[in-house]
Amino acid sequence: MRYQSATLLFAASVLAAVGIATPVRAHHAFAAEFDSTQPITLRGSVTRVEWINPHTWIHLDVKDSSGKVIEWMIEGGTPNTLLRRGVDKNSLPAGTEIVVEGYRAKNGTNRANGRDLTLPNGRKLFLGSSGTGAPTDGKDPGETK
Amino acid sequence: MNRWMTQCRVVAAVAMLASIWALTAMASAQQSAEQKPKAPAKAKTWTPPRTPWGEPDLQGVYSNRTITPFERPDEFAGKATLSDAETAELERRVVDRSADKREAKGTEADVSRAYNEFWWDRGTKVTTNRSSLLIDPADGRVPPLTAEAQRRALDEWKQPALRGGGANGRGADTYLDRSLFERCITRGMPGAMSPSAYNNNYRIVQSPGYVVVAIEMLGGARIIPTDGRAHVNGGLRQWMGDSRGHWENNTLVVETTNFTNKTLYRGAAENLRLIEHFTRVDADTIDYRFTVEDPTTFTRSWTVAVPYLRTDEQMFEYACHEGNYGMEGILSGARFEETK
């Protein structure tokens, strides 16, 4: 199975290299960094936000089932896009409780990409900021398609 | 390098050959429909303002974000422009395919998307009624590679130090396997002038004898002399090449040569000759076009047209090296997988 998926990945890379169906994408390959077989949901308290390029990183204290606090790092979007969305490094103050859905890092560390971020009441984080232009998913109360 | 990776690369090389053959056959079949590129569209009634020293004034901040496909999709074969209904359908699909819908959860494709749409800035609208950004050849597809370029691509596969401007590396034995974009070095040319998933902003500034194009993605500015001076010596090679501009009526024409063998644009490297046209066609639009010429790589030259639309957005710094944790994650992830 591993051989098969690796082959597909390599073949896809070659196709991209010769210019066939190259999608518009970010500056690095997320599929090489995070594991699609390890989707993860984390609920925790923000400890700090690294407002850095090329991507922001949110640090989160998460309690495991025994109550032990473990620090997680969540990869977010690029600061420039967030600034244009009306979000800055102070928008997510320490102590904010958030729920993160993403994929765990392949290297087994406590890192994940921030696929979706919501507040504990289910409201999508940052939604309502001006001019997002982002399609909606109907998750939020009052959200219209 | 372990054995299974070697096997993968052999399989992938075969896949690449097959894809090149397929592409060649497809493009040959469509070759008869080719036409010469049309001159950049000129506004019939609109005259661009001039700088105090008399040149067409292109200055301002522009965005080239778009959902218009780079190459023409099969569904629009033979159709260079789209109707309003087809345009609306393309835009509806972008919303429909939104990562917010979570339909692909647990797949590589979903991981590649990385985030829900809030984090991205790739646009939700087409910015032209053309069915592809690529306008010449008339089939809207990149022409086939020459036989020499196909051999070169295979050789490069055997020597995985990557020169490419794409996001996917060819391996993860070392950071040298990863793309120049991932390494925060450059998207090269014309990659740096092409739309991406965010940071699609450019600032054009003019002074007598120069046009400057500041680029938000990965930062940097192209300082283009327009005073008629010759290119630098052919022995001097640069990652972004050596650009020289001149004015033809209302159009800025820029020729870029002297590329290195360290960058790769769809197979083209040091022999690339790039011709760009910047024509301001109304107060808020630059008709931007680039033509790729490299007889050692492509069986014919080809041209892409991307609207640059004026924006009120500010340009921001993008200091990509600041905290490129992604590179560490990719390489250590590969080491971890080898131990499985």
The average pLDDT score of chain A comes to 72
> Quick one: how many beta strands of chain B?
10
Assembly state of the chains shown: heterodimer
What would you call the structural class of chain B? Answer: alpha+beta
Q: Kindly state the mean pLDDT of chain B as a whole number?
A: 83
Widest sheet of chain A: strand order? 5-3-2-1-4-6
Overview of this protein structure:
The complex is a heterodimer of chains A (145) and B (340). Chain A is of the alpha+beta class and 145 residues long. Chain A has three helices and six strands. Chain A has a six-stranded mixed sheet. Chain B is 21% helix and 20% strand. In chain B, strands 1, 2, 3, 4, 5, 6, 7, 8, 9 and 10 form a ten-stranded antiparallel sheet that branches. In chain B, a hairpin with a 2-residue loop joins β8 and β9. In chain B, α1 (3-30) packs antiparallel against α4 (147-158). The chains are: A alpha+beta (145), B alpha+beta (340). The interface between A and B is large, with 73 and 90 residues.
What is the compact description of this entry?
Chain A is 18% helix and 32% strand. Chain A contains 3 helices and 6 strands, in the order H-H-E-E-E-H-E-E-E.
Summary tags:
heterodimer; A: 145 residues; alpha+beta; 6-stranded mixed beta sheet; 32% strand; disordered C terminus; B: 340 residues; 10-stranded antiparallel beta sheet
